[in-house]
């Protein structure tokens, strides 16, 4: 199982196949076809556009489909962020 920090293609380079190629490469490197149980990452619930992209790769919404919760204990330096 791997956790991605963030999946992001700079605006100027979008729509050229880079996102798809990167997604496939990361999955391949992780061993998604044989030794890796899955890839995980976070997506803001409001980011509907990107959700549509991930659905093309059969990504599952772990919150609505598997009732997972994203948990955090805040450190003092993070007290005011969302
Ligand atoms: C989503 C994102 C990765 C797509 O990258 P991209 O390089 O523009 O995508 P590609 O050019 O590789 O597109 C691949 C395919 O997906 C489709 N696609 C791209 N963005 C899409 C979207 N938002 N919704 C539906 N389909 C999309 C393309 O039309 C293309 O289809 P095709 O294979 O039939 O031609 C990019 O827009 C991005 O970085 N967005 C911000 C992501 C973000 O918010 N990250 C933080 C949370 S993880």
TrEMBL record:
Keyword Transferase: yes
MF annotations from Gene Ontology: N-acetyltransferase activity
Keywords for this protein: Acyltransferase, Transferase
Domain N-acetyltransferase, chain residue ranges per copy: 3-57
Keyword tRNA-binding: no
Short name of one Pfam family: Acetyltransf_1
InterPro entries listed in its UniProt record: Acyl_CoA_acyltransferase (IPR016181), Diverse_Substrate_AcTransf (IPR051016), GNAT_dom (IPR000182)
Matches recorded under PANTHER family: DIAMINE N-ACETYLTRANSFERASE, GH14572P-RELATED
The family this protein is said to belong to: Belongs to the acetyltransferase family.
UniProt-recorded name of the protein: Diamine acetyltransferase 1-like
Gene (UniProt): LOC110985347
């Amino acid at each position: 199982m791997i956790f991605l920090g963030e999946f992001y293609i700079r605006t100027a380079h979008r729509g050229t196949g880079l996102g798809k190629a990167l997604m496939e490469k990361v999955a391949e490197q992780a061993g998604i076809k044989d030794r890796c149980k899955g890839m995980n990452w976070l997506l803001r619930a409001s980011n509907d556009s990107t959700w549509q992209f991930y659905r093309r790769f059969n990504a599952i919404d772990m919150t609505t489909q598997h009732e997972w919760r994203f948990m955090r204990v805040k450190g003092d330096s993070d007290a005011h962020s969302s």
